Amino acid sequence: MPKAVCLLSGGLDSSTCMAIARSEGFTCYALSFDYGQRHRVELEAAAKIAASLGVKDHKLVRIDLRIFGQSALTDDIAVPKHESVDALGQGIPITYVPARNTIFLSFALAYAEVLEASDIFIGVNAIDYSGYPDCRPQYIEAFERMGNLATKAGVEGRTKLKIHMPLAKLTKAGIVKQALALGLDVGATHSCYDPNSDGVACGRCDSCLLRKKGFEEAGVPDPLAYQVA
């Protein structure tokens, strides 16, 4: 079975992405990041999902992006809250973490080279998403081209990097349906940017609203508890 490095945050999208990799016959090596995010409860979800999907290995990388700040996820900046998904802005929100996916993909590239794996899976989505520039397919494709120039394994022809983004063109409802079809325990995933001290999702941040929209449009109940229904 071919090996794949799967970026796993513990959220619905990354968990579904890894379930897809597994269903396609890959041996999955999960990679999660404690980067100083205020919603570290997602890492507990990542561990549960990794165990439930039977990954070969699950590595947790610790880096501190709080040293740069400038994001509501890593700095002393309030996470924006809204009453409905219709109120979400059109620009890049303050929850954007500068260069986060570039950093994560660089670690995944290094891990893949060590494993002599040619495949990386990332759960980016470009339809029902918050507008982050590093979630766009054209960015991922550009990183893939760079990655094939950047490694010893690539230059020697032992690997040819392919970054899979199976959720890129799915709506959030489509992602929910895919997750359920694959038997993913969606109740174990965590999506909130600003949970309380008990880890309960706020229900009003961008991520919560998009998740709730997905479940509503998919016509299935979301098993996750929210502070605000």
What does this structure look like?
This protein is α/β, with parallel strands linked by helices and 229 residues long. It has a single domain, classed as HUPs (Rossmann fold, 3-Layer(aba) Sandwich), CATH 3.40.50. Helices cover 35% and strands 11% of the residues. It has 7 helices and 5 strands; from the N terminus they run βαβαβαβααβαα. Strands 3-2-1-4-5 form a 5-stranded parallel β-sheet, with helices on both faces. Strand 2, helix 2 (41-52) and strand 3 form a beta-alpha-beta unit. The chain is globular, with a radius of gyration of 17 Å.
The shape, in one word, is globular
- The helix content is 25-40%
Q: Beta-sheet strand percentage?
A: 5-15%
What is the architecture at the second tier of CATH?
Answer: 3-Layer(aba) Sandwich
Terminal residue distance:
43 Å
Any chance you could write out the topology, listing elements then pairs?
Blueprint: E1 3-7, H1 12-23, E2 27-34, H2 41-52, E3 57-62, H3 100-115, E4 119-121, H4 137-150, H5 152-155, E5 162-164, H6 172-181, H7 206-218
Parallel strand pairs: 1-2, 1-4, 2-3, 4-5
Helix pairs in contact: 1-6, 6-7
Give a quick rundown of the structure:
The chain is of the alpha/beta class. It contains 7 helices and 5 strands.
What descriptive keywords fit this protein?
229 residues; alpha/beta; Rossmann fold; 5-stranded parallel β-sheet; 7 helices; 5 strands; globular
